[in-house]
Design brief:
Elements (H helix, E strand, L loop, with lengths): L4 H33 L3 H20 L5 H17 L3
Helix pairs in contact: 1-2, 2-3
Length: 85
């Protein structure tokens, strides 16, 4: 148990940040799954900018590493470009 008021506040703040990060990471995984399951190039091309933006925002907030975001964006772009029209 925390011995100082500041330690108690830090515990509360860390719990709130953990919940927010879990939510954002889960939302990202769902968006990636939706994009990967799309077989139509037009639909996938429409989804890609939103997913790329989400990845950039999460990398900026350190929810995911910036290299992971770059790798995912690269792979997704390659996948979308490879889909048949």
């Amino acid at each position: 148990m925390a011995n100082h008021k500041s330690a108690e506040k830090r515990i509360r703040a860390n719990a709130a940040k953990q919940d927010r990060n879990k939510y954002q990471a889960k939302t990202m995984r769902n968006a990636l799954k939706n994009l990967r399951s799309t077989k139509d190039q037009k639909a996938a091309s429409d989804l890609l900018p939103g997913v790329a933006s989400m990845l950039d925002k999460l990398a900026k907030k350190n929810v995911i590493h910036k290299s992971k975001a770059a790798n995912l964006k690269s792979k997704l772009t390659k996948m979308v470009n490879g889909l048949s029209k």
